[in-house]
């Protein structure tokens, strides 16, 4: 075998190995068994959902003006609360009861109560599930927001997105499994704690993407740094982190190593994902 034949053999051999790996991942993804990385465990059960979108509205509209029909409130309009009621009021005094500003009607075959505030949603009432029994244990914005995102008023518990990424895994190696798009004006009360991984593995921490400007802070190096120098710096950092991990262990450091690898892949994938100019 001469040199040219040898390199041709190696080239096609490597291509075949890479193709086999990609096809295997596609098969696993189709079967719902693909974890986010080799270190991620597969879900305990085949997931019925592939993804979830959770919209957390901080300071949203009143539930009694939208989906929570309370005929008793309409009858008690203008009255004071009964003396035995002691609501948790963070600021000021309790005013008089007020009826909704929009009329409620039962919609669709399910008879779901929706106010006239949402005429278009009323047309798809049978595709909606509305839970009216949920409530917050405090009127203080920060712990109430924690409770909305994690179920607990105290910080340190996994957010809903962390649980979803833990349970569903990820079918994409180039982007985070748990992505957060905060309001462009400011973060919610409590900031990044609202998308914390809590006691789950650090890889389930949410990654915040901006809706305006650069999607992620410091994802791309300064323009003066050439790609070769950037790669050498990243390789050195990973070698040092891996050496420390081998000696001391720790989930946080292992997650940090994976995050650097993910960041390198995101440099290629994120610009296309964040560019919505081609959307129709």
Task: Give the helices and strands, then pairings.
Elements lengths: L2 H28 L40 H5 L28 E4 L4 E4 L3 H4 L18 H10 L9 H9 L10 E2 L26 E2 L18 H22 L2 H24 L6
Helix pairs in contact: 6-7
Description:
The strands form 2 sheets. The protein has a two-stranded antiparallel ribbon with strand order 1-2. It has a domain at about 60-135. Residues about 5-25 and about 30-35 have low confidence and may be disordered. A hairpin with a 4-residue loop joins strand 1 and strand 2. The longest helix has 28 residues, at about 5-30. The chain is mainly alpha-helical. Helix 6 (about 225-250) runs antiparallel to helix 7. It has 7 helices and 4 strands.
Note the main attributes of this structure.
two-stranded antiparallel ribbon; single chain; two-stranded parallel ribbon; 7 helices; 280 residues; mainly alpha; elongated
Regarding quaternary structure, what we see is single chain
- On the 0 to 100 scale, the average pLDDT is 77
**Which residues sit in consecutive blocks of at least 5 with pLDDT less than 50?**
6-26, 28-36
Could you say which structural class the secondary elements and strand pairing correspond to?
mainly alpha
Going across the biggest sheet, name each strand in turn: 1-2
Main sheet: strands, sense, barrel = 2 strands, antiparallel
- Please compute the radius of gyration using only Cα atoms: 26 Å
Strand element count: 4
Q: Provide the succession of SSEs.
A: HHEEHHHEEHH
Q: Could you tell me how far the N terminus lies from the C terminus, measured between alpha carbons in angstroms? A: 54 Å
The shape is elongated
**Overall helicity:** 25-40%
* Relative strand content: under 5%
The total of helices stands at: 7
């Amino acid at each position: 075998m001469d040199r040219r034949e040898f390199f041709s053999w190696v080239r096609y051999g490597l291509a075949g190995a890479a193709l086999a790996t990609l096809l295997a991942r596609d098969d696993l993804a189709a079967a719902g068994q693909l974890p986010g990385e080799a270190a991620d465990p597969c879900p305990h059960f085949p997931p019925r959902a592939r993804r979830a979108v959770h919209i957390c509205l901080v300071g949203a509209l009143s539930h009694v003006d939208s989906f929570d029909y309370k005929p008793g409130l309409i009858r008690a309009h203008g009255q004071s609360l009964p003396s035995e009621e002691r609501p948790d009021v963070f600021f000021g005094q309790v005013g008089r009861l007020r009826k909704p500003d929009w009329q409620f009607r039962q919609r669709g075959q399910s008879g779901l109560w929706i106010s006239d505030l949402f005429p278009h949603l009323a047309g798809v009432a049978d595709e909606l599930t509305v839970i009216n029994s949920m409530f917050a244990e405090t009127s203080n914005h920060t712990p109430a927001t924690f409770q909305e995102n994690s179920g607990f008023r105290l910080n340190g518990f996994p957010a809903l997105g962390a649980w979803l990424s833990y349970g569903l895994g990820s079918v994409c190696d180039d982007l985070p499994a748990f992505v957060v798009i905060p309001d462009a004006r400011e973060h919610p009360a409590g900031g990044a704690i609202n998308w914390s991984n809590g006691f789950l593995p650090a890889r389930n921490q949410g990654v915040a993407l901006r809706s305006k400007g650069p999607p992620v802070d410091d994802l791309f190096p300064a323009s003066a740094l050439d790609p070769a120098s950037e790669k050498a710096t990243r390789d050195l950092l990973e070698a040092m982190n891996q050496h420390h991990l081998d000696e001391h262990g720790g989930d946080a450091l292992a997650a940090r190593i994976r995050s650097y690898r993910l960041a390198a892949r995101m440099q290629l994938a994120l610009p296309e994902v964040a560019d919505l100019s081609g959307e129709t």
